[in-house]
């Protein structure tokens, strides 16, 4: 093995590219997939590259944009910052599990009704988050803008905005996303 | 179809579909994750490999050594192409720095290698095994220092009257310097391409790009191949904002990787590489002098600005709009693009105006204050209906004053805070600000093809939809013209097999491309007329196309019955004549903002945003509104949090990811209202439409800056207006109060 | 990212034992580690998944405090009713950090071990004494961008800050970190003992020995008082702190102050706490004594003082 260079980086193929794979079973949108994956594969790349479920997007691959948001066992996370092999046996819901073009779910329809997107690239992540935050508010999970930590949380504009802030939208559709979420929340209440 | 004079009354003045709200026709695909973006197209080419780029880690110099031996040995690696393996590629007209090839490094993170492997994990891992040594060269990276050294604000692009004399004798003058930071497009979808150039001959490219024809030509030039051998598809683009106007390294690397590996190769630029590898909006330093009489009438403007560019580029011309936005008989503007060896600066949403108005509209606020005038009234007083440099050249339409009055009324401007620093709610200081906006309304020739079969119409054009709503407004245009329902129109975009359109950029796309589709529909109507066998030959103009039927003298026929089941195909383009050169054709807006600024920390939070726009006929109020909202949101970032930070010794943007470069998040954006005036402009296009996508970002940063000043009494002239630029001023004011 | 072997540990002892192997690294939430692995700033050859070690409980201690399992997620911890009631400072700090998605995944132990967000640490082409001891500190070169970086507790070798919000609250609450060594021994650290200052070895970021694993964080019995966490950042959410202030103030005016965003660890000094009754400027005189800001981050001194002043004014 070569010694590391001045900046501490190794330049040796044998050290860097061992070929370690692991078996892993993912339950995605109700379908079981038995995979053997390079340990380095993120959940996002497993979905996009191995299962061709490209609804979850790669905007930054570093947890800084939220385009890859999916639900794992009912909890929203960034699929780019978790290893697929760590999700053996987990239930994963992606945008493809929300609805199809022919049969949209209420949040997807609300996004169309309110023009809550433009280029569409952040949209699947926005919809996955939007769905999850309504549950998080119902469950009483506090946020940065929650005024009182000991009472039930109101579904205010501020709560929605804060909770959706992990999903960047460079087209700037935030005002319409807010309306879409309210539309769904009101229909449910 | 030639557009050689202003439109007369036409079908769009009585439209059923154009100008009416219609949800995006591509919406279902987008909200269900089924719209295929460039990197996701598993289905278009079998056997795709993954390419991973390597960027240079110096700003200027030469590569003395590259060793890819270890990378080539790594598991799964099919090919490695280094820049030393390839003769310098030709530089397309639209590129300033060479995209690849040779040993010269022109900027940080310039692409210098691509590793092709069977998976991303393996390609990425192997890319880090390439050893590179450089001979660095000294270069200049500091705009402020360069300006200090050069003392050159540029040669005047316009110099009318006697500016110095007017300033010398004016009772009220302003002389101030403003700075805007370099900005990144930061579209959500990274630049990405799949290229199949396996045989080194025909090249097929699936990519994310705003301008199909330009980029095809750029590829032909870059690789010195025939454009006819290149096919491009870009049906969905995950945001562009000018960053995807050009051929960029993702496509070039995928092509080289494909040729080397003999397989299709896909490359997405890693986000941390994008900020320095691709283009950005240059920073500016602007000096503005304004002179006015006691009555508030402006007598002189002197606007000089510098920006930065790699040698051979043009930088960010922040002064152009100052030539004709307001009246004033003495005026001079100058822009100097200073050569620095930072990454490549190029167009970003409203190139020039976004930065220029960010300064000019603070200056206007400062002048209004000196004059003790309402800033709305000050702008109204200095409105002009003609080009002030050339009074014989009128504006085709200019409803800026209506925008100002309507905005002031809706916003409740009368009830604004009138004393800077004078309104407080708890720890928060409340302020109001406004600004004007002006952005030209250019049009470019644009073509389309239409296919009619069994009453269904297919529109094909290489126009792109980068989130702008092109699919929808094109369908509306075709449905309106052919008398069809929206459901009977299918729109196919972003393919080099389709007629060349304006493409998306410069606020020219919507107006130009819909006009091109209208031209193609008229050509189809002519073909239909020629086919009708009703005795005398009918002219297309004598026919009406309404609710799926063709109606005319002796004609009443379903469109579905035309052509006996055969497809009828027609193609045309709109060509805009030079009569437009005798006019100023522009779009205008007034922006009103309410902010809260924390009296202790200087944190600024937007509370209300209002835009009133004069932008021709609005083709679809839903998508147009979203375009303006998007501009306002991007402007909020530009005003308050976005700035590429320059390492002035090493020559690169250090905050090169989405954690370090802070675009606005949802919590930053308050209630936003957009109002469109009814102002169809017959001089613009047959649809009397103009673009609106860049107007929304114009002026907004200044409106925010003016509101911050109004809230705090602290005038910040440098963007972004972050807490560090406010906190000392707030402390001083607190100490003196 | 370099290739690595992957193994799941069934309990803390197995994890600590496995982690003795050279090049081994624990993974829990992965929200910082995987980010760093993609950049090859972290290059473990073996990754030990500790999410199944059962350390995700939050339980009362005999002393009246709380023991927080190292695997408790930031979201779960912020939502715990006992935390919200008795340690609202901690809940507030947690929810001011990152995004909802990240907090769902990030863990208590991982949050403590987050590495700095210094841009020169993240760009592997730049010399950095954290990444490569002795390479130099690009952040202290001429022309460097330092607006986000540290003003106190820093050294000639490193001016990075610690990015955690949670840790600032924990410091103010006098929390302690419990660990397990591969040989089965356990240790307990105050946060100041846990986080060494950089000095000439900024690559040493914690007191953890090889293979040593954080098992829990222990909160002492509640101290009451008015508890606030105020985070100043450029955008309203999803951003690291420029300056943050954790304040616990008792009715008699006494209390505690800790700062985030200014130093290589959560920043608190006894002398500054004692000055709290005298007001913000008295506190900062003690708390930031010896600060060595750059031209671009000197504002943090003023900002810290004014942020605390705002919190004190509110009472």
From TrEMBL, chain A:
Domain of life: Bacteria
One Pfam family from the record: Fer2_2
Domain 2Fe-2S ferredoxin-type: 22-98
PROSITE patterns: 2FE2S_FER_1, 2FE2S_FER_2
Record's keyword annotation contains Acyltransferase: no
Keywords: Iron, Metal-binding, Oxidoreductase
Database matches in PANTHER family: OXIDOREDUCTASE, IRON-SULPHUR BINDING SUBUNIT-RELATED-RELATED
Name of this chain's protein: 2Fe-2S iron-sulfur cluster-binding protein
Taxonomic source organism: Halomonas dongshanensis
Lineage: Bacteria, Pseudomonadati, Pseudomonadota, Gammaproteobacteria, Oceanospirillales
Automatic annotation (TrEMBL), chain B:
Superkingdom of the source species: Bacteria
Domain Aldehyde oxidase/xanthine dehydrogenase a/b hammerhead: 32-138
Matches recorded under NCBIfam families: peri_hyde_PaoC
PANTHER family xrefs: ALDEHYDE OXIDOREDUCTASE MOLYBDENUM-BINDING SUBUNIT PAOC (PTHR11908:SF123), XANTHINE DEHYDROGENASE (PTHR11908)
Protein name (database record): Xanthine dehydrogenase family protein molybdopterin-binding subunit
Automatic annotation (TrEMBL), chain C:
Domain FAD-binding PCMH-type residue range list: 1-224
UniProt key word Flavoprotein: yes
Record field: transmembrane: none
Superkingdom to which the source organism belongs: Bacteria
Cross-referenced Pfam families: FAD_binding_5 (PF00941)
Keyword Lipid metabolism: no
Signal peptide extent: none
Keywords assigned: FAD, Flavoprotein
Cited SMART domains: CO_deh_flav_C
Protein name: Xanthine dehydrogenase family protein subunit M
């Amino acid at each position: 093995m070569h010694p590391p260079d001045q900046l501490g980086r190794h330049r040796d193929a044998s050290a860097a590219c061992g070929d370690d794979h692991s078996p892993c079973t993912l339950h995605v949108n109700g379908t079981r997939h038995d995979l053997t994956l390079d340990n380095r594969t993120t959940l996002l790349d497993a979905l996009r590259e191995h299962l061709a479920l490209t609804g979850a997007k790669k905007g930054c691959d570093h947890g800084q944009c939220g385009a890859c948001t999916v639900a794992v066992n009912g909890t929203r996370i960034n699929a780019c910052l978790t290893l697929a092999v760590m999700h053996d046996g987990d239930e994963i819901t992606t945008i493809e599990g929300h609805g199809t073009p022919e049969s949209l779910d209420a949040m997807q329809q609300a996004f169309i009704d309110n023009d809550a997107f433009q280029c569409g690239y952040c949209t699947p992540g926005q919809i996955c988050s939007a769905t999850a935050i309504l549950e998080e508010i119902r469950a009483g999970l506090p946020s940065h803008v929650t005024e009182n930590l000991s009472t039930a949380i109101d579904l205010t504009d501020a709560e929605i905005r804060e909770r959706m802030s992990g999903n960047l939208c460079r087209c700037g559709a935030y005002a319409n996303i807010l309306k879409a979420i309210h539309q769904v929340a009101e229909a449910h209440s | 179809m030639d557009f050689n004079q202003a439109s007369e009354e036409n079908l769009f003045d009585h439209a059923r579909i154009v100008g009416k709200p219609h949800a995006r026709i591509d919406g279902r695909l987008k909200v269900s994750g089924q719209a295929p973006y460039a990197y996701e197209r598993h289905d278009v080419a079998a056997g795709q490999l993954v390419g991973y780029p390597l960027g240079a880690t110096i700003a200027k110099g030469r590569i003395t050594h590259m060793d890819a031996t270890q990378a080539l040995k790594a598991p799964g690696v099919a090919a490695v192409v280094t820049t030393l393996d390839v003769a310098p590629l030709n530089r397309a007209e639209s590129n300033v720095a060479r995209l690849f090839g040779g040993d010269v490094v022109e900027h940080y993170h310039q692409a210098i290698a691509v590793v092709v492997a069977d998976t991303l994990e393996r390609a990425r891992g192997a890319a880090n095994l390439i050893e590179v040594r450089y001979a660095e060269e000294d270069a200049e990276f500091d705009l402020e220092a360069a300006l200090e050294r050069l003392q050159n604000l540029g040669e005047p692009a316009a110099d009318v009257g006697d500016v110095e004399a007017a300033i010398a004798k004016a009772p009220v003058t302003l002389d101030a310097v403003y700075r805007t930071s370099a900005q990144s497009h930061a579209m959500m979808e990274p630049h990405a391409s799949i290229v199949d150039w396996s045989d080194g001959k025909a090249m097929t490219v699936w990519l994310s790009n705003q301008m199909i024809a330009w980029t095809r030509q750029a590829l032909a030039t870059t690789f010195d191949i025939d454009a006819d051998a290149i096919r491009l598809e870009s049906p969905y683009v995950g945001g562009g904002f000018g960053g995807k106007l050009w051929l960029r390294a993702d496509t070039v690397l995928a092509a080289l990787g494909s040729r080397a590996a003999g397989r299709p190769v896909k490359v997405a630029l890693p986000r941390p590489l994008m900020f320095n590898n691709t283009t950005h909006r240059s920073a500016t330093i602007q000096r503005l002098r304004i002179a006015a009489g006691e009555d508030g009438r402006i007598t002189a403007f002197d606007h000089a600005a510098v920006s930065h560019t790699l040698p051979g580029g043009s930088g960010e011309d922040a002064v152009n709009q100052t030539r004709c936005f307001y009246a004033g008989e003495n005026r001079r503007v100058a822009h100097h693009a200073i050569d620095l060896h930072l990454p490549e600066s190029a167009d970003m949403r409203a190139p020039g105006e976004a930065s220029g108005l960010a300064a000019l509209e603070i200056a206007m606020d400062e002048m209004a204050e000196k004059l003790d005038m309402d800033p709305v009234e000050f702008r109204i007083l200095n409105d002009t209906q003609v080009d002030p440099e050339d009074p014989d050249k009128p504006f085709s339409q200019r409803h800026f004053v209506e925008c100002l009055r309507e905005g002031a009324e809706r916003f409740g401007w009368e009830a604004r805070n009138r004393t800077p620093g004078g309104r407080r709610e708890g720890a928060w200081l409340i302020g109001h600000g406004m600004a004007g906006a002006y952005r030209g309304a250019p049009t470019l020739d644009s073509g389309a093809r239409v296919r009619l079969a069994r009453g269904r119409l297919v529109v094909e054009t290489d126009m792109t939809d980068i989130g702008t709503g092109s699919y929808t407004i094109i369908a509306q245009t075709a449905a309106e013209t052919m008398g069809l329902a929206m459901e009977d129109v299918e729109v196919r975009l972003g393919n080099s097999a389709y007629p060349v359109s304006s493409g998306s950029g410069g606020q020219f796309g919507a107006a130009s491309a819909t006009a091109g589709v209208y031209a193609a529909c008229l050509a189809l109507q002519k073909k239909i007329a020629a086919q009708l066998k009703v005795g005398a030959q009918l002219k297309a103009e004598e026919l009406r196309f309404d609710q799926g039927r063709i109606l005319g003298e002796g004609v009443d026929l379903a469109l579905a019955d035309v052509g006996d089941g055969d497809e009828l195909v027609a193609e045309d383009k709109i060509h805009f004549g030079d009569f437009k050169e005798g006019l100023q054709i522009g779009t205008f807006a007034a922006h009103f903002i309410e902010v809260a600024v924390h009296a202790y920390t200087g944190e600024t939070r937007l509370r209300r945003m209002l835009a009133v726009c004069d932008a021709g006929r609005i083709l679809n109020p839903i998508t147009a509104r979203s375009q303006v909202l998007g501009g306002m949101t991007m402007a909020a970032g530009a005003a308050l949090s976005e700035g590429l930070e320059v390492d002035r010794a090493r020559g690169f943007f250090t905050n090169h990811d989405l954690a370090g470069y802070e675009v606005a998040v949802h919590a930053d954006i308050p209630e936003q209202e957009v109002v469109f005036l009814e102002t169809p402009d017959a001089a613009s296009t047959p649809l009397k439409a103009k673009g609106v996508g860049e107007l929304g970002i114009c002026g907004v940063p200044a409106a925010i800056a003016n509101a911050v000043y109004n809230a705090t009494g602290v005038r910040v002239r440098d963007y972004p207006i972050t807490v560090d630029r406010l906190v000392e001023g707030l402390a001083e004011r607190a100490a003196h109060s | 990212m370099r290739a690595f072997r992957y193994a799941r540990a069934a309990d803390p002892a197995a994890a600590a034992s496995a982690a003795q192997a050279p090049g081994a690294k624990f993974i829990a939430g992965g929200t910082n580690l995987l980010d760093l692995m993609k950049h090859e700033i972290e290059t473990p050859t073996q990754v030990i998944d500790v999410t199944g070690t059962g350390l995700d409980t939050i339980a009362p201690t005999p002393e009246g405090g709380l023991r927080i399992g190292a695997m408790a997620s930031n979201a779960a911890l912020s939502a715990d009713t006992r935390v919200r009631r008795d340690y609202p400072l901690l809940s507030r700090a947690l929810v001011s950090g990152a995004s909802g998605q990240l907090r769902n995944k990030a863990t208590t132990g991982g949050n403590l071990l987050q590495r700095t967000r210094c841009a020169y640490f993240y760009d592997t082409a730049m010399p950095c004494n954290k990444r490569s001891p002795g390479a130099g500190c690009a952040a202290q070169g001429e022309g460097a961008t330092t607006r986000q970086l540290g003003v106190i507790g820093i050294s000639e070798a490193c001016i990075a800050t610690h990015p955690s919000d949670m840790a600032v609250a924990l410091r103010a609450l006098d929390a302690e970190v419990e660990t397990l060594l591969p040989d089965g021994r356990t240790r307990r650290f105050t946060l100041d003992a846990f986080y060494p200052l950089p000095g000439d070895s900024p690559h040493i970021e914690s007191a953890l020995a090889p293979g040593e694993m954080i098992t829990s964080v222990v909160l002492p019995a509640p101290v009451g008082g008015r508890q606030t966490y105020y985070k100043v950042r450029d955008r309203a959410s999803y951003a690291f702190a420029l300056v943050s202030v954790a304040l616990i103030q008792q009715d008699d005016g006494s209390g505690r102050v800790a700062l985030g965003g200014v130093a290589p660890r959560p920043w608190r000094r006894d002398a500054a706490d004692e000055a709290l009754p005298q007001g913000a400027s008295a506190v900062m005189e003690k708390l930031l004594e010896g600060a060595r800001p750059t031209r671009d981050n000197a504002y943090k001194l003023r900002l810290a003082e004014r942020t605390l002043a705002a919190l004190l004014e509110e009472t």
